[in-house]
Amino acid sequence: MSNQQQPAKMWSGRFREPLDRTFEQWQRSFPFDWRLLPQEVAASKAHAQTIAAAGILTPDELTRMLDGLDAVAQRPTNWAHRISVTSGQVDYETSNAQIAAAIIASAPQAEDIHHYVELELTKEIGALALKLHTGRSRNEQIATDMRLFVREAIDHCLRGLESWAEALLTLAEANAEAVMPGYTHLQRAEPVLIAHWLLAYVSMIERDLSRFADARARMNFCPLGSGAIAGATLALDRTIAARALDFTAPTPNSIDATSDRDFMLDFAQAASTLGLHISRFAEEITLYATAEFNFVELPEAFSTGSSAMPQKKNPDLTELARGKSARLLGASTALSTLVKGLPLAYNKDLQEGQEQIFDIADTLTGLLSVLPNFTHALKFRSAGMKTAATTGYLNAMAAATYLTHKGVPFRKAHEKIGNAVRFGLESNRELNELTLAELNQFGPEFGEDFYESITLEATLDCHDVAGGTARHRVRQALAEARKRLAGNVVER
What we know:
Helices cover 62% and strands 4% of the residues. The protein has 21 helices and six strands. The strands form three sheets. It has a two-stranded antiparallel ribbon with strand order 1-2. The radius of gyration is 31 Å and the shape is elongated. The N terminus is likely disordered.
């Protein structure tokens, strides 16, 4: 294919030959980084204020520049209106793909979001737009845009996580007295309150919240003024842009600022850990909804049927949630692999990281849009769960504890109860069904009070430690989790 004359590029002065057309289309980032338009406009407005303070723009030029940038920011809304008029569509969300296609098609010469904004701003305010790039580089622009995008994605994720935690707490409170078997090695271990099990996921979410919040605080520094690598060539007051964009301060090193993608890695790694937690929850719900467990009634509003088998109700939400965790892990791994061998400072390779971040943000948005309502809709088959919690010798630990209170060393108590369990298995009876005479063959310490020490209530309440499944401890844990969640929401 022969080369064709292309419109001038932002960097074309040094070149005499036009780009190969195929290469030009292949290397463009605009087909995906167009979604950074709000961030690019915000960063450009901050930079305009900075260069105005340095005397590059007059007050009137600054006003025109800011108004022009506001007009460029309205492009998606304008396209949404055009599409709705043409197609009769009025829902902005349902036409996002069309809006993206329209914006991209409207600027076929735009290499990236930075070039697009310059081109569109030129349409609005003429040659004045060309002053905007004074004292800055695309290297610092993309570093700033991506920080702004990740910061917003984290804020959205925090809100979604809080909603999911609230749903789990509400579900736990509604099942505060219900019991279920707790598992180790996927074998029944000890009875626990359903609320205690649900609070385990609340604890995971609280760690997720702290990871995202830590990442947000760590990345909240402004690269504007870093130039291409060595810093701006003008004496710019970098605090102006930092304040305008609500950053904590300017970044301390221009080389690091233009090449740093740690903030993206932090976000991706926090997302992948959250994905693991979501996947574990999804796996347990999927498992508990099977006929073999029969602990959970899947909400019909979040399930589908089989096209071949009329009786099926499939756990599509939990299976998809489980699958989405692989997507998050893959994106995190791709980012780490992308960055690991790059020399300082900016390299074009980093362009590949943007799509990973967009995918992570979209995946989290999708997951956290459905998990809260799904969780609210869950129904437990508490009678069957209680039966499972009171059979299979789940009170054996409580029985061994009974003997320790009688002065038997725990190792010997463990052995005596193990022998009693084996005897029960041979006669198909639970521990509470063995006679005192039968128990006494394993030790004289067994008394009539043994039976009341291994009831379901006693078995639960013997775990009377902070963080345990004793009823009053779980009530206390629920109240404390509510308080922490409320405090987190207020603090944000």
